[in-house]
Predict the structure.
Amino acid sequence: MTSHTTRQRAAVLEGLAGCKDFVSAQELYALLTANRTRVGLTTVYRTLRDLEAAGGVDVVRDDSGERLYRQRPDGGHQHYLICRSCGHSRPVDSGVVEEWADHITAATGFTAVEHTVELSGICTGCQPSPPKDR
Amino acid sequence: MTSHTTRQRAAVLEGLAGCKDFVSAQELYALLTANRTRVGLTTVYRTLRDLEAAGGVDVVRDDSGERLYRQRPDGGHQHYLICRSCGHSRPVDSGVVEEWADHITAATGFTAVEHTVELSGICTGCQPSPPKDR
DNA sequence: ATGGACATGGAATTCATTTTCATCTAGGTT
DNA sequence: AACCTAGATGAAAATGAATTCCATGTCCAT
C-alpha cells in the first residue's frame, strides 16, 4: 500500500543517519544536493514529515521556529540538550520529566497529554574561553 | 531612553491582560482592531517581542510554529498545560522540572542552560464526550 | 516652537513549509 | 515483454507568520 522504498527516500534517510546532530529540512536538502544526490526539496520535507509521524525522528524547533530533525537513537522518545553555539546535541535522561508529565495528566483530567521539552545551553567546547579582551 | 508609554503599547498590554489564555500576535491584532483600537500589526509584534525580552510574558509555539503569548501570572517563569481543542491553558507546578533542569546543567558542564517545556492535551470539557459507538 | 530621539504602521520582503499538479516509476498483472 | 495504475516525485506557485524599510508622527527638554 504505502511507502515504496524509493531512491529518494533512502537518500534522505541515509543523509539523516549521517548527521550526528539536528538538521533542518533545508540543510539536509542542501547537503544531499551538494552530494550530487538528486532529490527534490518537497520530497525531503515529505519524508521528514512521514518519519516524524512514524516516530522515527525527534524534532525540535530552533529559535527562529525552524524544525530540526534528528534520527532517534533508541526506543522511546528522547529529549536533548543542544548547544546554542555549535549546535551539538546530546540526549539527556528524562525519566523524571516523563513521570512528572504522567502525574500532571492524572492530576488534571486532561487526556492524550503530549509534552515537548527542549534544553539548550553553551557546551564546554564553546565556552567564551580566554577572555581575550576586546 | 527607551519605552515611552504610548497609547498603542498600553492597548496591546491591556488586550493581552484581557486574555486568560494564550493568543497569537495576529489574534491580538484582530482583537484590538475589532475593538476599534487603532494599532498597527507591526507595533503588536514589536510590543510582544519587547515584552518577551523583558520577561513579562510566557511564550509557547502551537503546532504550526506560531508564537502564542500569555501574560505571566507571577514571579518566575511558568509552564502550561494547553488544551489542543479549545486552547484553554492552565499553569502547572513545574518545580520538579526546574530541579531536573538544574541538575542536567550541573551534570553536563553546559552553561546558560535554558529550557522550554510544553504540555498539551484534551481538557475535560473537550472530551470526545458521548462515545457514540465507533 | 524647535530639534531630535524614539515610536508608528503600511508596504514590501523574507523564508520555512505546504499545495498544486503534471509527470514519472515501481512492481504487480496479464 | 508490454501494460496498468496507485503511489511518488519535484518545479513552481501559494501560504502565512514574522521582520525590515522608511516616511511620517509624537513626546519631551531646552
